[in-house]
Amino acid sequence: MTGPLPITVVILTFNEAPHIRRCLERIRPLVQRMVVIDSFSTDDTPSIARACGAEVLQRRWLNYADQFQWALDNAGITTEWVLRLDADEYFEPASVDEILHRLGTLPPDVTGVNFRRKVIFRGRWIRFGGFYPTILLRLWRHGAARIESRWMDEHVVLQRGRSVTFAHDFVDENLNDISWWTDKHNGYATRQMIDFVAQEQQLFARDSALEKSQSGQARLKRLLKVHVFARMPLYLRGTLYFLFRYFILLGFLDGRQGFLFHFLQGWWNWMLVDAKIDEARSFIARHGLEAFKLHLHDRWGYRL
């Protein structure tokens, strides 16, 4: 087959001017439609996206799952396939060729396609520490999948049919500096805290669709996170996770940049999550659950 294929790519953005052109220009030959859901960026993201041929819709941000599901429900998607992509991600040429040659040959019962994610951090491919390959469902037949309703670590889950895994990679390469990176992960840590505390306090039912889905890497990781990692003592689990990842899973082979990545993303990030959980538990003990909900809204703008 030759492009464009009957695919709509959906990309969520907020201040992604350093990335959005690269993302759109690399995917444009492959897809019929590009839709950017922008959370009222204050930089040139919307204008760059329009100049690259994308349609831009704007909506206030709550969390990734809420925003993406809104796009699926409201963007008027009519193509056979839907592709999920982040602004700082792109497909390698070999992966584009594979999609062009294989997508039209898939039988009707194949409703999803998994891809291998390659993370590049400060110019270094993170190959070890359990990070490569991370296999993710990113392309599916329209109407055959939904995104989990979670505050963090959301996945697209098939509701019918089966998936196949293509051989080539897509790349996650953020070009921002380390201050931006740590600010971003501070936000991630807050949403992880909300997920954990919400389950402890039974604020809403946990979306367990991935845990009940077909076997796969994402499902196994989620089961370990929910049934093993989440039950470990605060602060200890982040330390053990980093040691396991860095030494047992050979993260030290990723060199100097790899050490920084595994330390920050594997240890610092989870210590920060646990500190926020600890703080939230203390707040609830002193002021009550309803006051905590108000605090989430007043402090971070999150409404449960």
TrEMBL record:
Domain of life from the UniProt record: Bacteria
One Pfam family hit: Glycos_transf_2
Annotated InterPro entries: Glyco_trans_2-like, Nucleotide-diphossugar_trans
Glycosyltransferase 2-like domain boundaries: 8-128
Coiled coil: none
Similarity remark: Belongs to the glycosyltransferase 2 family. WaaE/KdtX subfamily.
Database matches in PANTHER family: GLYCOSYLTRANSFERASE, POLY-BETA-1,6-N-ACETYL-D-GLUCOSAMINE SYNTHASE
Protein name per the record: Glycosyltransferase family 2 protein
